[in-house]
Amino acid sequence: MKISLNTIALSALVWLTTGCDKHEEIPITDSKPRKKAGPVEHIDSQERIAAMKLVAIVDPVEKERDIFMAEVRGAFDEKQFDKLEALAGDLRRSKELFRDGSWKIRAFYDGLDNRFHTGEDGYLTDLETHEAWRKAHPDSVTRRIAMADLYTSYAWHARGSGYAHTVTSQEWDLMRERLDQAAKALKEARELANASKVTDICWYSVAIHLGLGQEWEKETFDQVVADAIEVEPTYWGVAAQRAYSLLPRWYGEEGDWEAFAARMADDPRGPGDEVYARIVMNLSGYYADVFRDAKASWPRTRNGMEALLAKYPESVTLQNQAAYLGTLGRDREYAKRWFDKLGENYIEDVWEKPERFVHFRGWAETGEW
Description:
Strand order of the largest sheet: 1-2
Number of domains: 1
Mean pLDDT: 90
Order of helices and strands: HEHHHHHHHHHHHHHHEHH
Helix content: 55-70%
Low-confidence stretches: 1-31
Largest sheet: 2 strands, parallel
Structural class: mainly alpha
Number of helices: 17
Shape: globular
Radius of gyration: 21 Å
């Protein structure tokens, strides 16, 4: 596992103990953005009636991932550490994907971090289970990456989701201490991985999440992204996380994440416009209209969506995203194609409200808002 800079050495980590008013949101892995109001101001009675006829469905691919994550979490809770070690090793070697192109190794770590009890007792119980895992497998790279993920989540739990000025000095201290523990675990994971020649792409995902809390300098983020691409250029998760950190609410200026997305798509080693579309899907919820209010490109997004849908035709979520983004991109023919395929079925996480689905569909069919 290569990283050229000593980015995770504890002495090199940067932390602003007073917080920063600009960076007051919780990380992307801890919550989903609620979509801002889009062009749905005039929902009429017929649209409301039509919305009542829609069927909110569960994407079978999402269900498959949820079951997988529950199985991973169950093995952790039951202290089946041999099973976890073997599964992680298999997933690292196989680079297996779900039927929507998401990586199973990422879902593995998400499953470990998906505790039922999210309060203080839940974290303390997990720390006790990690101690049992440490005793069973003292040289485990997998456990240390999972531990870093746990401590990073635990740090944001200490801070809470309120505005920076509402966070107490004790809460800032707890967050800093827990992030330091996460950094320590990542550093140990990297050293063990280098010694045993283990490559786990999720190390870089956890590092980006950690860096968001420790407010790393741009150059440190860039180095982690560059090293992740060198290790596994087809893994799009790190690029999506870095794009999120470039939102103006975090460390970016207007146009930064869009320019970053374009650079990632232009990299010949990677998946091209697929990663551009992934980033746009990931961040569209932070805008009423990601193509109007940000500088995202609909043509590039469409190219990426087409490639993704050709590879992963069973993903109903991707089909819903195509209809949603096609409408925002003012591409009636494209949007209508996907609305026609969806019929009366919709994914709630994409649309939030069924009226929005009906309203957008009406525009695709008539050209009128």
